[in-house]
Write a structure and sequence with these properties.
single chain, 93 residues, mainly alpha, Arc Repressor Mutant, subunit A, 6 helices, globular
Amino acid sequence: MEAALWYVLTGTRGGSNRVRLLRALDDRPRNANQLAEDLDLDYKTVRHHLDVLMDNDVVQRSGDEYGAVYLPTPRARQHWDTIETIIDQTDAD
């Protein structure tokens, strides 16, 4: 999981937006529209990054697809120290 987190959050284009999404979801679960508004990102961009995070078991969806709320997975919570290390590193850049 740690290698996947480093890859998804720092090793690919868009990693910084995925870090921003995780920070927001750590604060409170939100749907894609709320994330787009709160982070001033395009809705389709948010959906793309959420799909990448879901494909890598970092976030999960709760509820129906339209209006579904996203939150970190239990597996991501187990590795939250790694996520915080990655966030700290991206803040330093």
